[in-house]
Amino acid sequence: MMAKANPINDTHKAGPMAVFFLTQTMQIAIEFVFIQQLVTKDSQQDAWIAVLLGGLSTFPVMWLILRLLEKERRYGQADLFSIQRRIFGKLIGSMLNLIVSIYVFLYSVTYLRSLIELLQVEIFPQLSTLVFSVLFCLIVWYIVMGGFRNIVGVSLINFIYLLPLFLSNVFVVPHAHFSNLLPIMEHRPQQIFLSFFMNTHVYVGFEFILFYYPFIKKPEEAKKWAYFSLLTTLYIYLIFIILGIVYYSQGEVQKTIWPTLTFWKSIKFPFFEHVDIIFSIILLWSLIPLVSLCSWVLTRGIKFTFPKIKKKYSLIAILILTIVTAYLIRDGQQVMMLTRLFNIIGFIAIYCYIPLLFLCQWLKNLFTGETA
Amino acid sequence: MFWKKRRLKKTDPQTPAKSIVDLLKQLKVNPDFTHFHHKGPHFSCWVSFMQTLVDVDYVHRDVFPYLYSNQVHCLSDVQTILPFEEIIRTKELSVIQSKLLEGFIVIQESENKPDCLIIPSIKVQGRQVEQTEIETSILGSHEGFVESIDTNINLIRKRLPIPQFQIKELRVGKISRTRVCVLFVDGIANKENLNTVVQRISDLEVVSLIDATMLALHIGDNNHSLFPQFIDTERPDRVAGALYEGKVAVLVDGSPNALIMPSTIVEFFAAFDDYFLVWPIATAYRLLRLFAVAFSIVSSSLYVAVLTYHYQLVPKDLMGALIVSRSSVPYDPVIEVLLLEIMIELLREAGARLPTKVGQTMGIVGGIVIGTASVQAGVASNILLIIIAMSALAAFITPNYRMATTIRFIRFPFILFAEVLGLLGIALCFMLFVCHLIKLTSLGRPYIEPIYPLRVTDMQDAYIRLPFNFQNRRPQFLRTGDADRTNPQRAREKVGKQSPDIDE
Amino acid sequence: MRRKVMVGVLSCLLLAGCVPTHIIDDILIVEAEGYDYIGHNKVIGTVTMPNFVQSGNQGGQGAGLPSTASLIRSLSVQTYNGKSLVDRLQSEGQVAIQAGKIRLMLFNLPMAKHGLSIQMSFRNRDPDVPRDLTLAVVDGSCKKLLKATDYQTQIPVSRYAQDMIMQNNTQNYPDSDLSSFLYAYFGAYMDPFMPIIQKNGDHLEMRGLALFNHDKLAMRIPDSKVFVFKMLYQNFTLGVYDLEYRPGRHIALRNVKTSVNYKVRHGNSASPDIYTTIHVIGQVRQAYPGSVSKVKTPQVARIMEKGLASDARQLVRKIQKKGIDPLQIGDKVRSFTYHFDGKSWPERYRHARFHCKVSVIIQQTGITD
Q1: How far A16 CA lies from chain B's nearest CA (Å)?
Q2: Which of A23, A98, C169, C191 is the most exposed place for a label (fewest CB within 10 A)?
Q3: Which of C158, C186, C221 corresponds to the end of one domain?
Q4: DSSP state for residue C108 in the 8-state scheme
């Protein structure tokens, strides 16, 4: 049996509602700006079915994750790093932890870089990736130094600030061509599955509960918030995909890289025009908690593997690595490639690895239960 | 060499008096120290007091006659005969010293013996209770705190006539030993909060403490933060309200301000008047104040950002007005904004320092003459002048002065960020401040409480004010000993049944 | 120490992170672009910038240089089709030229016939361009229209033209901003259209619609038939219709409210059936004496129904013959048909049977009977 990690002080824990906001933050980063193009490629007007299915499929996965964590609480700290080490032993466990850390790292870099790409195209073509990511990471550093509760606070604020973006959907109604949604269910299941596969990475992110679960007070109450968050995400994505279908013709939506952003260009207020600039700056908010949480998870991972290294020092290293990696990604093409790659990894992580892990835990418990 | 020596000598703390003789000798230097030998027919003694601290009339009228009376033969006789409730007989030097310097009379039988009698005869001098000057209100009480701590406690106790209202007295300051009182209602105030306050105050290592706001700076959770973490108020009714709510108040002798702690950021934007207005109006004014604050912070930086980088945002009909007013200005928007902002700051500072009547003239001169003149001279644009004036006005809406200064100050980093990165810079700067606010605590309680941690029940008295019958629970934020303000069941019974239908 | 390093790093970053500024009064804000095709893939491009500065600084004294003197108002250059005008003219700008507030794009008839694909792909790619940009075809020369100084109005011609087109869009002309143009341009089974404007002496006027075959001008609809087009294209409420119910006798209808509904049968057959039901509700404002009354109004309405239906059928037949689909009929057929056969659609479109049913209600007849 592994040595029990030092229990987490109650003052560092966050309430059960934190699960809602963190899951929201991790799932809805900036994908709602561009999912339409990716998803409608294979199933055109039926893409919303794929999005619906994708959202619904997250529920059983979430159930698996929560079961996994609940069972694990008897054996020690219920987070992924501990689970893997317990189940697979020190060597393989550490290897897996490394792979998971790379996944988390990739997660934060992909989003950070696609946001910078968006800002460069939309607002400041001359914006230096380096300078911006350094400024950004300074803020992230400031937050992560405050600990988990701060990250929850920032993600809560993020949720509030993103609300006007979600509400901007109503402006589509006068320009909507609802007949674009017809005929329903025209496409073959394979095509819908392809779209379903393409939208995996928009739903990815809820599995981060595997990392912060020990930091939640009253985990039983947190369950309902987790499911509620998945439901909210599903609703938001569904609305955005329908927006993409009814506002654009199919030919146009597949030519547009950021359909939601382009749609925002047609919104006009008497006080200001070009809402898209303001909205894309608000998008900045959704990235702060995301990168913070990822860096926080990585510091925990490093601490877990090498207990000697203090979190505050590893944090700086992680942020520098993030900046460097973001800087090395040159242009939009590479960002796109990274997104595609991430899609595959996310699909494997969610639909293959988590059930597998659940199975392994079950077997391990069966095995140790018999021998004990 | 000499400098150093001399300085060393000066900073060397004066040797504390070792005996009563030393003490008297030390004090005799002061011209207002009275020390004389009284020789009566039956009893002779040494009387000493500080003339400036003691009510001399009172001493002549109520103390000396007894000393001269025939019944007195020794000090104990004095103690029994004097009609005072509190006469201390002590040999302890520190007590003698501090009492003497507070305005007590010290009576000794012989000059060299430490055994003495201490009789209270403090002369209370200071302002009468007057109208509040900083936190004025139209409705409600107009009393304000004064510089005397006893008067202030009197003002609060009038509003809290209950035995649970308790006061803890502490002394702060290595030399000054200033009286500091921690006020709370036992059973309602959170024990942890109270202990933190007492702990922080008693741990304080300072030479002297002159004002309550100074104390707030010393015991705040983050002393580098731009945001004040405790509310300072000069309204006794506000303090009483806070105490009923379960907060802790701190009074400092010599300061006309009380500190209320812990507090959240929205409380700084709530005026006490809000509770005297019907709830929709109060809510509207609170929202107005928050909007004003937001406007005040970002308006000038938005001007810089939009005019420097994001001309696309300007609606077409405003474009003409902006360009026309800008076209004769030779500077970049940021210079123009800084020029006017600093000018407004100068006016404000000058207005605050000058006597009231001159101050008003100052405002007129500054606002009208300099403003229009600078536009006509072509160093600032018309529209900017409107924006700056509005944002200055909006900053003064904040009821709390310290918060108002913070708000006026933090627009400068915003302007700089806006100049460098446009709207993106404003967003980054905003983020920094929000992250800072999330981190900030007040007595260990989260500073932006009803937002994070999200507590919906506390929202009813934060950005909005719901009617009083909704507010029958104390804020969760304070973790009070008694969560309910009223007995909910009894309250419900008293309201009675709702009428089942129209006209029934 | 660490704090000092932080401050240093931060200030360096802020200095290094500077991005080029576009100070609002130090740039030329392009409001209109015009393209005149002159053959051999050459165009004459014209841009106009509004000039806001009037008589100088009110009450200002003693400025040495007239700092408020006007900037240049328009530039024009010969270039090849497909070159961004703003980039081409950058060297001729007094200060930097910026296209972020562009609101009007004009093409002359030869340009429209030549094809707009290059221009459109441009506009779609540029993140600066607002989606409510107004597009129009000019009967005549764009350069003359944009550079003329003999208009009655003092406001810049770009605004004048845009306001006029926008005003008409609320009435008889269908919505034709960039977003709806691109919608039809990129969409399958549909073609875009633009209004046509013309400079007539000292003012501008609307001259009907230009219908495109993908990116090339295919046919024109005269101003008088635009109402029928809009009626078939979208629902609207503020139409104006002039009914000639007998030669020389007119009734003017205002606030005409129409709603259109399409139904499709046999979408994958050789000749699909398209059923259109149109409801028109109008209010009489002016009428030939004695033409409207409680008795006569329904009769007039019947005449109007017949006239509108035949006009609609004629219009659709015309566009079918040309093989263009600005009414997006193909898309409607698609939305009604499972496994719509898109490949053979262009052929089948010509043979599609169009059925039109119009019902007119004349609601008010004014305050006299």
Answers
A1: 11
A2: A98
A3: C221
A4: E
**Residues B25-40: what's their mean pLDDT?**
83
> What are the boundaries of each domain within chain A?
12-365
How many domains are there within chain C? 2
Q: Are residues C212 and C237 in the same domain?
A: no
Q: When comparing pLDDT for C67 and C21, which is higher? A: C21
Strand, helix or coil for residue C356: strand
- Which of B312, B328, B333 faces C100 most closely, judged by CB atoms? B312
Interface of A with B in 280-309 (CB under 8 A): 281-282, 284-285, 288
Q: Does some domain include residue C243?
A: yes
Q: CB–CB of C52 and B324 under 8 A?
A: yes
Please name the member of A131, A179, A265 whose beta carbon is closest to the beta carbon of C332: A179
Q: Name the residue among B434, B456, B457, B464 with its Cα closest to residue B447.
A: B434
CB contact under 8 A, A250 and C19: no
Is residue A370 scored above 60 in pLDDT?
Answer: no
pLDDT tens profile C151-199: 888 888 888 999 999 999 988 899 888 888 999 999 888 999 999 999 9
Rounded to whole angstroms, the Cα distance separating C134 from C161 reads 9
Q: What is the model's pLDDT at position C14?
A: 65
Extract the tokens encoding B23.
């003490």
Residue C203 shares a structural domain with residue C87: yes
Measured CA to CA, the distance from residue A351 to residue C256 in angstroms comes to: 57
Q: Given CB atoms, is C29 within the 8 Å cutoff of chain B? A: yes
Q: What is the mean pLDDT of residues A270-277?
A: 83
> Can the peptide bond before residue B262 be classed as cis, meaning omega within 30 degrees of 0?
yes
The alpha carbon of A98 is separated from its chain's Cα centroid by a whole number of angstroms, namely 19
Min distance A95 CA to chain B CA atoms (Å): 35
The yes-or-no verdict on residue C65 having pLDDT over 50 is no
Residue-averaged pLDDT of chain A: 87
Complex ipTM = 0.90
**CB pair distance less than 8 Å for C10 and A251:** no
Cα B317 to chain centroid, rounded: 47
* pLDDT higher than 80, residue C94: no
Tell me if chain B has a CB within 8 Å of the CB of C115: no
Instruction: State the smallest CA–CA distance between residue C187 and chain B in angstroms.
Output: 29
Distance CA C52, CA C156 (A): 9
Q: In this structure, how many other beta carbons lie within 10 angstroms of the beta carbon of residue C61?
A: 8
Q: How far is Cα C25 from Cα C71, in angstroms, rounded to an integer?
A: 10
Q: Is residue C1 part of a domain?
A: no
Class of domain A12-365: mainly alpha
Domain extent at residue C230: 223-369
How far apart are the CA of B390 and the nearest CA of chain C, in angstroms?
22
Shared-domain flag, residues C325 and C282: yes
Q: Where are the domains of chain B?
A: 2-120, 149-263, 275-445
Bond from prior residue into B453 cis (ω within 30 degrees of 0): yes
The beta-carbon neighbor of A251 closest among C127, C180, C188 is: C188
C-beta atoms of B328 and C68 within 8 A: yes
Cβ contact, residue pair A156, B310, below 8 Å: no
Does C57 sit within 8 Å of B312, measured CB to CB? no
Residue C65 resides in a domain: no
Q: Which of C16, C132, C331 sits opposite A268 (nearest CB)?
A: C132
What pLDDT band is residue C60 in, cutting at 50, 70 and 90?
very low
Q: A–C: how many Cβ contacts below 8 A?
A: 71
